[in-house]
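Example record

The entry below shows one chain as it appears in the dataset: sequence first, then structure tokens.
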Amino acid sequence: MYLPEDIITKLSRESGKLVDTEGLFIQAMQDIVKDEIKKKVYSRIDRDPKLQEQIRIAVEDLIEARIKETYALMRLGKIAARVGLELIPGDLKEDVAKEFTSILEREITEIFQKIS
């Protein structure tokens, strides 16, 4: 059973963790420094149309690379699933394949619902 002073001591310790003013101050200063650096970078980029175009192309290349990476990972997942299904004993294979297909359909449906 807690005595009243135990509750007060515990509450005062916990409330000190909630209001970490030193940490908040440091985080605020870091944000200010980041904002100033961003301003300098954006200012430099805004003055150079060639640089803007190079950045645009690089970002497009990066997006394309990420899409290719995702596609390759999906293909590897498909191969892994196929190998895994081949390792399942014959009497369980059909049930596991149906369950796997059901799970996969649900996941893909959720993905498409999120992106549409």
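Notes for this example: Helices lie at 4-18, 21-46, 49-87, 90-115. The chain has a mean pLDDT of 87.
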